[in-house]
Amino acid sequence: AQTVTQSQPEMSVQEAETVTLSCTYDTSESDYYLFWYKQPPSRQMILVIRQEAYKQQNATENRFSVNFQKAAKSFSLKISDSQLGDAAMYFCASRSATNKLIFGTGTLLAVQP
Amino acid sequence: DTAVSQTPKYLVTQMGNDKSIKCEQNLGHDTMYWYKQDSKKFLKIMFSYNNKELIINETVPNRFSPKSPDKAHLNLHINSLELGDSAVYFCASSPRGGGDTEAFFGQGTRLTVV
User: For the segment A20-70, what is each residue's pLDDT rounded down to a tens digit?
Assistant: First the structure.
């Protein structure tokens, strides 16, 4: 079975500070891919960052980086220098070799000025 | 220029009615999905089609029937609408095989059943 778990329903961070959003997953497949998507109030789903499971190096996209711990099946998202525009719902997701893309329950991030 | 477009964006209808949501993608992708996002924002996969062929069919009432006339379109028809069907429905697409490529989402259709 393929599952994705986000244990933090809500998080809050001060502007310019750093915040880490947690995600764990489970899959029986050796070939899979992990993603973080952002959903602002506009409802649009926006890809933040992606990670191939076979790569040991953690992915980085500007202020966004991941801590991928394959053995622990953990895939956390770190947002540095948080900005007001980062406020959104963040979804962790995994895609299997059969192209099934499933999501965690989401973490609502608030950014305090 | 819209990559994945859904129509309508909003749909209000009475219980018992039948309605359809249309989805089109102009990205040349082979795989298309339907997701349901409930009031708690949980995104649940409903269906996935690969080049017009159904490949994923999660536990969804058979009142929901996807139709893929060609690989660029995946429509969702819902019969005998119930109050619990109220949600935001998202269409998405990705290349065949997926891999680490991004899935592109439509803007969502907010369905309200009264």
Answer: 999 999 998 888 899 999 999 999 999 999 998 888 899 999 999 999 999
Q: Among A45, A99, A108, whose Cβ lies nearest the Cβ of B94?
A: A99
C-alpha to C-alpha distances, B45 to A69, B10, B59, B84, nearest whole angstrom: 26, 20, 9, 16
The residue with tokens 């926006």 is A46
Q: What is the pLDDT of residues B36-65, one digit of tens each?
A: 999 999 999 999 888 888 888 888 899 999
Place of tokens 């298309």: B32
Sign of the dihedral through C-alpha A98, A101, A103, A108: positive
Partner residue opposite B108 with nearest CB, options A43, A47, A89: A43
The CA distance from B37 to A52, in Å, is 26
Chain-centre distance for alpha carbon B21: 7
Total number of residues shown for chain A: 113
Pair of tokens at residue B51: 């080049």
φ, ψ at B56 (rounded to 5°)? -130, 130
Q: Residues in chain B whose beta carbon is closer than 8 A to a beta carbon of chain A?
A: 31, 33, 35, 40-45, 48, 50, 55-56, 88, 90, 92, 94, 96-100, 102-103, 105, 107-108
Backbone angles phi, psi at A84, to 5 degrees: -55, -35
Q: Rounded CA gap, B99 and A31, in Å?
A: 9
Rounded to a whole number of angstroms, the distance between the first and last alpha carbons of chain B is 34
